[in-house]
Amino acid sequence: xxxxxxxxxxxxxxxxxxxxxxxxxxxxxxxxxxxxxxxxxxxxxxxxxxxxxxxxxxxxxxxxxxxxxxxxxxxxxxxxxxxxxxxxxxxxxxxxxxxxxxxxxxxxxxxx
Amino acid sequence: xxxxxxxxxxxxxxxxxxxxxxxxxxxxxxxxxxxxxxxxxxxxxxxxxxxxxxxxxxxxxxxxxxxxxxxxxxxxxxxxxxxxxxxxxxxxxxxxxxxxxxxxxxxxxxxxxxxxx
Lengths: 112, 117
Prior knowledge:
Distance between the termini of chain B: 37 Å
Shape of chain A: globular
Largest interface: A-B, 21 and 24 residues
Distance between the termini of chain A: 38 Å
Order of helices and strands of chain B: EEEEEEEEEEE
Number of helices of chain A: 0
Strand content of chain A: over 45%
Radius of gyration of chain B: 13 Å
Strand content of chain B: over 45%
Number of helices of chain B: 0
Structural class of chain B: mainly beta
Oligomer: heterodimer
Number of strands of chain B: 11
Radius of gyration of chain A: 13 Å
Largest sheet of chain B: 7 strands, mixed
């Protein structure tokens, strides 16, 4: 049972492009939605996170859009760079920051 | 910033032996730590929640006698894979948040690559 569905599985964009990764969740009790970036052989690192009381959050080149009624949220990476090439995971949790459920991951490749 | 350190970063062991993986919060205290398992090109699957001074809570389908967790202090949790078999080969990752700052985001270690031959 996958509580957080993520798409696409992989994505290739050119430098400067705006990759968009989408996630959908089922459990309406989720109240915290983080995005993580993972490089090969490393643990995930928190990129940005949002709570359902706002529809958008921006930090640097990363923006989360959140649609509570549709139970969907997405990550946009502005002016993408080759260094952004990594696997991105959306996640969700309820009752705080602690126990998160991860999406299936999106492998992003930014080509020069 | 908060750092979570895992050791070793990789380990190779023979089938039937046990392997211990350490997870340390270097500059903060963590009442709770989490252990995940990640297969190649797949997502992180939560294995168990490690609670300082008490028994770990295991997710459904995770054998608690196979994956022993000890959280003896506020900065250290260990995962021991007992009687390891090739199917236990995986990437194991721990995470923790700063107990002292209330709602603190999770910080992840860099993982341990276990290969059982």
